[in-house]
Amino acid sequence: MNILDRFLKYVTFDTQSDELTNMTPSTPGQMIFAQYLKDELEGMHLQDITLDDNGYLMATLPANTTGVPTVGFIAHLDTSPDMSGRHVNPRIVKNYDGGDIVLNQENGIVLSPNEFPELRHYEGQDLIVTDGNTLLGADDKAGIAEIVSAIDHLQRHPEIKHGKIRIAFNPDEEIGQGAHKFDVNLFGADWGYTMDGGEIGELEYENFNAASAKVTFKGRNVHPGSAKHKMINSMRIANQFVIMLPRWETPEHTEGYEGFYHLVGMEGTVEETTLHYIIRDHDRDRFERRKKELEHLARKINHEYPDCCSIEIRDQYYNMREKIEPVMHIVEVAEQAMRNLGIVPKVQPIRGGTDGAQLSFKGLPCPNIFAGGLNFHGRYEFLPIPSMEKARDVIVEIARLVANK
């Protein structure tokens, strides 16, 4: 099976994750997909194949030379809960002409370079697009297809010398839990790469430090006709809290290394209102100051409205840069692999997080490499087929370079 056929098969599995189930994997479709992949890897006669009850699938391609470090390649089984991944109906646009792509005529859904100018970079290439009703699932089924196809290529070409290669496919990356039950010791690699980046050339070893915050405001409800000096409207106080934060330090006003506070949810009544934030910054000191600022604002609210406001802050993950910098050769190998294939490396910070960040702090240094897709998590997602093929080739070239070095 070639890489395109693999990808088109993989997207037929509905693997949306769900943070509300409190299970691992969070949805049964992920385990169904993992079992399918396990059968495929067994058919390829890989070794040390394990699939645990939490949906973590691992396997080994044995070395065909000696004295070489063990390298791992990792991708995630789940797709984003932001949009349906059920009944994905992909279509291939041959030799893209640079114009609008009608995804769904009936509903007027169009993938246009006027709104997504990055499309123009792929003129003349074959693209995989959605039918406008679901996401595509290139995040991260393209990564899985690339890893499996790279292993298949190495098996078919024994003249390419490589060390022991470990591969892993894990659940629930999209809800921030992909590495929580990942057994780094069982995996047994010296370092790894997540195949979970975007467009061709992306190579990332920096990501946000991340935390979530839940801010709760208690009010007092009184009939509005006799509420003067008695009512405490928790929704109004919550709004006061929101506008106390810096207006320009939000996702819609930041880029690059700039951090932010992001209000992701609110619900409330006069009696009680809750705000949900995520806090992001690449710099650890600024990250800590952002958390302290939220706590400071909560104290200010309580000074005006005693015992009204409570706040819970929970760290989610940290910038993997501090774990990668001592072993920068693993980034340099990936850069060299891309250059050898005529790909210009785009080394940039991730304005988000990957499983690799958490894995790096668990003892498995793990930069992130492009999987090739764009516009993840929505109906406008698309995947240039040559980018997927190049990602497969990068895996093969990394294996070759590590053995030669």
Short synopsis of the structure:
Helices cover 30% and strands 22% of the residues.
Textual characterization of the structure:
By secondary structure, this protein is an alpha+beta fold. Helix content is 30%, strand content 22%. It has ten helices and 17 strands. Strands 1-2-8-3-9-16-10-15 form an eight-stranded mixed β-sheet, with helices on one face. A four-stranded antiparallel β-sheet has the order 12-13-11-14. Helix 1 runs antiparallel to helix 3, helix 3 (138-156) crosses helix 10 and helix 8 crosses helix 10 (385-404).
Break the fold down into its secondary structure elements and pairings.
Elements: H1 3-10, H2 28-43, E1 47-51, E2 57-61, E3 71-76, E4 91-93, E5 101-104, E6 109-111, E7 127-129, H3 138-156, E8 165-170, H4 184-187, E9 191-197, E10 202-204, E11 209-218, H5 234-244, E12 260-268, E13 272-281, H6 284-304, E14 309-317, H7 321-324, H8 329-340, E15 346-347, H9 355-361, E16 368-370, E17 382-384, H10 385-404
Parallel strand pairs: 3-8, 3-9, 9-16, 10-15
Antiparallel strand pairs: 1-2, 2-8, 4-7, 5-6, 7-17, 10-16, 11-13, 11-14, 12-13
Helix pairs in contact: 1-3, 3-10, 8-10
